[in-house]
Design a protein that fits this description.
CATH class: Alpha Beta
Structural class: alpha/beta
Largest sheet: 9 strands, mixed
Number of domains: 1
Number of strands: 20
Radius of gyration: 20 Å
Oligomer: single chain
Shape: globular
CATH topology: Rossmann fold
Helix content: 10-25%
Order of helices and strands: HEEEHEHEEHEEEEEHEHEEHEEEEHHEEH
CATH superfamily: Peptidase S8/S53 domain
Amino acid sequence: MRNTLFAKIAVLLLLISMFSALPVVSAPSMFSVGEINAIPVSAVGQSALEGTAPGPKSTFNLDMIDVENIAEEGEGIYVAVIDTGMLPHWMHYFPEGTVVTEWATAFHWDLPSWRTVEVPDAWDDALSGHGTHVASTVVGYNWLTGGAVHQVPGVAPKAKIIPIKVLWWMDEYGTSVATSDCVATGIEYATSLAKRHGIKLVINLSLGGGAPSRVIERAIDKALREGVIVVAAAGNAGTDGMDWPGAFPQVISAAWAGWTGQWAGGDIGMWDPDWWQYDVPEDLMTPAPASVYLGYRAGTQVYMSWGSGRELPGQDLDVAAPGSWVHGPYWTPFWGPLPADPRECYGWVGGTSMASPHVAGTAALMLEKNPSLDQYDIEAILEATADLDPITYLNGYWLDPNPYMAIYYLHWGYPPGLWYASWADDAVGEGFLDADEAVAIA
């Protein structure tokens, strides 16, 4: 168990970085998203593509929130992914018609004019696959492997994605960055689409900053008045608190949870590269796989990440959702130049950025069933149906002062073995997302 001494350090590697304002009084604050907690999926041994083949019926992250029990698929609902834009390979990953290219755009901060400018053709030249991965969680994606195209499901596979690029620069730490004005402009643009075209729209904000921005809050409030649903990541600063805009009370925020059977497919002591396609027990109170060694101390099927932003006074955390090691199309320049072969651009990625699209996708399903729902209806239903028991199972205090704990397995990218996470009530919001119950009540 010596590896547990390093758990906090390792799981905190992915941070939504906190940037102070530019050194000019009138400058906008900076909002960003981390790009570190990701592991590439090797394409070694793949042959030329030969037609299509069935993909997994579900994945662990969808199984955890019971998407397979839901009849709705998000048809007629649009999800604006305000993020890094799309990788140039995006058309290989998404079924035709899933991405609304005619509404996709990009907003950049122009230093010479000191203002946000629109660059409509720049939405699909992303350096980072962050926005591509977020979109893939919502609607699913094509997994190009084994000589065929495998279709992997998403939370709301018939929803439409509107990519809006606002994160326009990547620093030496692998952080994609935008000004608060760019983010607000992206929100205002998405809201204008909903108003002009009369569409039902969910905005996903898998980004954040260390302080509230009035310009972003005003844009969000305007969106809510127009009936747009706004979901945001809680941020990856751990006990330093939530990021904004996720911390605003009127925003639906998502914390970062994981599966204790990760990397091993539920069997501790072995690594299976297909673990992410395996079933999660229907009852999330089922003891963690490590319970064969540690009994009740190992926790349940769910753990909360050390990195997930904790709710501090003046902040509001709503629900937790799967966000650890989610599989999907992804690339980061830290892995090297973008490969020409789209089959090489996949990764397991973790953070509240990955949790947020699970909640946004669930909101899309709820809107399909009941288009009259507004932000406050959806937030209330998500909170009322969230499952608190698996993430408030009293088994802590034996490795540190926190009341809740879980043991899980890590293999690739870190020293392999059993690791632990522990947390308190400030990490969980109203509980773990239960998508099928939320849609049933909608």
